[in-house]
Structures are given as C-alpha cells and as structure tokens.
Design a protein that fits this description.
β8, α8 and β9 form a beta-alpha-beta unit. The protein folds into two domains: about 210 residues, 3-Layer(aba) Sandwich (Rossmann fold), CATH 3.40.50; about 190 residues, Rossmann fold, CATH 3.40.50. The chain contains 15 helices and 13 strands. The strands form two sheets. Strands 3-2-1-4-5-6-7 form a seven-stranded parallel beta sheet, sandwiched between helices. The chain has a six-stranded parallel beta sheet with strand order 10-9-8-11-12-13, sandwiched between helices. Helices cover about 45% and strands about 15% of the residues. The longest helix has 22 residues. About 50% of the residues are buried. The chain is α/β, with parallel strands linked by helices and about 400 residues long. The mean pLDDT is about 90.
Length: about 400
C-alpha cells in the first residue's frame, strides 16, 4: 500500500510509525511542516530504513508565528494547499493527517481525496474546542462567532473523512459536542518513540559537554509556550538557589522560551540555563543527564491534550513532575504507571514541593523512573501499533472505494 503520513508537528513517534510501516513492505512518505519550531523526529533516511521509506518536508517562505492570528491563518491555508499538492503528487492509497490546524487540514484533505486517496483524520486535539475555550467569551461576542466557524470547519472535515483515529476515549465526548458520528472510528493511544530513546547514563557525552554530569539536574525539554508559564522554571531555580550543585536546564523553543530568555537577561541566575532544542539523535543523552524531568501543561488543556514530551520522558527511566489538570490523560497515565508526581496546573508552590521531595529521595526517584520505563516497554510496541493503523487504513480505503 502507498501511505502518506502527515504530521504537521514532525514529532518523533509519528516518524517511528512511518518507518515501521515501510519495514513491513509498504511505500511510505512522511510529510511534516519544517517551519514549525517544535521538536522534530529524525527526518533523515537511515541505512536501516525500509526501501519504501522517504520524507517530504514541507516549508513556506517567511517566518511562521503563532502569535500573529491573521498572518498565521493565511499561512495555514497556504500550507494546506502546498502540503496537499505534495501529497497528491505522491499518489497515495491512503493519507493520515494529524496535529494540523483546521484551516490547513481542509485543503490538504480535499487535495488528497481529489487524487483518489482515502483520508484518515488523526485527532490529536480538538482545535475548534480549544478556540472556543480561549476566545468564546472575548470581543463582545465576536470570539463566539469565530469559535462557531471553527467548529463548523472541524466537524465538516471529520464527517468527510474516510476514517477517524482518536488518541483517547476521552475524545468521544468531543465528537459528541461537535455532533459528529464518523464513518469509521478507532481509538489508538499515542506512544513514545521507544526504539529511538534508549536509557542513557547520566554521565554521557552531552552531559559532559554542558557541565552537567556532576550536577543534580531538573530538566525541561520541548516546546515552551507562554501559557505553560515559563516563569515557573525560574521559580524552581530560585527555590534551589542556595542548594549546592542543583541545576535547572531548559531545552526549549517557542514564545515561552523567548520570554524566559528575556527574564534571564534581565535577572541572571547561576543555576538555570536555557538551550535550544536538540536533535533527535542527541535526545536520549539530553534526557539521560536529568535526575528529574519537568512537564508543564496549561490550565485549560483539560482532557483534549496529551503532550508528547511526557511519553518521551516515560521512555527515559527518569522520574517526572507534571504540572497539569488532574483530568488530563497524561496526568492519569503518570499516576497509574507510578512514574512521578502530579500537581495542579499553575501551582508553582506544589511543583517546587514535589521537586524538593524527589531531590531528597533517591529511592523514590529510582522507583518512579523504573516504573515509567516499564510502562513504556509494555505499551509502546511499534509493531503492534502499526498493525492497528493498518487495520484503519484498510477500512478507509474500502470506504473510499465504495463511495467512488
């Protein structure tokens, strides 16, 4: 089968799916937006990749900024048209697309289906419901009108898809809110790129290059937005300012990282450093240097968001402190797996208390880390995941052919 995997964000675990499908004999091209600033998987073609694997990075002229609403909307539409044309030229039997803004997903889907491909909507988050939460009560009713427009778009795309993949059964309520009953539906949880994230020792080359091998490291790695409250990380550093050999290391990109850079320029701290995102090749060593890893999720994330960084953290055999709403799936996974401590989103004091507890208890750190890795090994088998996706693709292709 010819399969186009489109992940707008370019996350590592989606690359892992594409590679596995190619190893199983399919012709797979992995498309992603190279202009997005978030963490990326390994986009190279490696010697151990199946002969059918290839990568189609999509880019646009200019700088993509999530903070400029109207410029972002125009670029999303342009991106959807460009990605759709590239995907249609590949002549796939099936396209799966996730993490894609609604106004990019629409033209991409129309181009794929116009070329005769089945289309699977990979629902990683409800874009329209997020807009509704953020804008619904703003601008004297205009925010509600904008949210209603995005609900209309997203619901129409879901109905027109030949298959829908949800990452959690929590998302079923989102479909109900949009009044959508997909033609074909499967729930496949996200996973960490276990094959690309071996457990690494603390004293590794990356740690030595950054002077961290003999420090107690609280690590944040990944996209850092303004709504993640990046100043929680400076508060963490300040809380340990008098504790010898403790370092807060932030490996990040995004508006929050820019804000943190400005804060550190205005008020430097000796025990916090800010580094750019590292390559997927370096990521195991980056995570390996940590004694505790930190994840932040905004208060309005609710049930419809599962940060991929938490899934990567589980692979690393390191204890996790997660600041997130208790009902969020990532918080429930962490609690059920016994892989770390969860505090309420925005609770800087709670996060610092959890960090102090783990700093002072090496046995608890080891127990949480081992439990997280055990959860990853039990749940992130890419061969089993790929089989489930192939079932989705076969149904979608049959659905498309029956409609044709």
């Amino acid at each position: 089968m010819r399969i186009a995997v489109h992940d707008y964000a370019g996350h590592p675990f989606q690359f892992e799916l594409s590679r596995q499908l190619a190893r199983e004999g399919h012709v797979v091209r992995h498309f992603y937006f190279a202009g997005d600033s978030g963490p990326k998987g390994d986009a190279s073609v490696r010697a151990d990749d199946g002969p059918g694997f290839s990568v189609g990075a999509v880019n646009l002229p200019g700088v993509y900024s999530k903070s400029k609403l109207f410029q972002r909307r125009a670029m999303d539409i342009r991106y959807g048209r460009e990605a759709g044309a590239r995907i249609a030229a590949f002549q796939p039997d099936v396209v799966i697309s996730g993490n894609t803004p609604v106004e990019a997903q629409g033209p991409l889907m129309r181009a794929a289906q116009g070329a005769g491909a089945a289309f699977v909507f990979w629902m990683q988050d409800f874009y329209s419901l997020a807009v509704k939460r953020i804008l619904g009560r703003k601008w004297f009713g205009a925010g509600a009108a904008i949210a209603a427009w995005y609900e209309h778009l997203e619901a129409g795309q879901l109905r027109a898809s030949d298959g829908v993949v949800l990452i959690s059964d929590d998302f079923l309520s989102g479909l109900a809110e949009l009044k959508v009953q997909p033609k074909s539906l499967e729930i496949i949880p996200n996973w960490g790129a276990l094959g690309s994230l071996p457990v690494r020792p603390k004293a590794n080359p990356w740690a030595r290059n950054h002077g961290l091998e003999d420090r107690f490291v609280f690590l944040y790695s990944g996209t850092l937005g303004l709504k993640h409250d990046p100043l929680v990380l400076t508060a963490l550093a300040d809380a340990f300012a008098e504790t010898e050999r403790v370092q807060v290391t932030v490996v990040a990109a995004g508006q929050g990282a820019d804000m943190l850079k400005g804060e550190l320029a205005a008020r430097p701290r000796r025990n916090i450093d800010l580094l750019p995102l590292q390559s997927m090749e370096a990521l195991p060593d980056v995570l390996g240097c940590a004694d505790v890893v930190i994840a932040l999720l905004e208060e309005d994330a609710g049930r419809f968001s599962v940060p991929s960084k938490v899934l990567s953290y589980l692979c690393a055999n390191r204890p996790i402190v997660l600041s997130a709403p208790r009902e969020n799936l990532a918080a429930r996974i962490l609690t059920d797996a016994g892989a770390g401590l969860v505090v309420e989103a925005g609770d800087a004091g709670g996060l610092i208390a959890a960090a102090r507890r783990l700093h002072g208890d090496s046995q608890l750190r080891a127990s949480f880390g081992a439990s997280g890795r055990a959860y990853a090994e039990a749940n992130f088998d890419i061969g089993a995941v790929a089989q489930r996706f192939m079932g989705v693709f076969e149904k979608a292709v049959a659905q498309r052919r029956s409609r044709a």
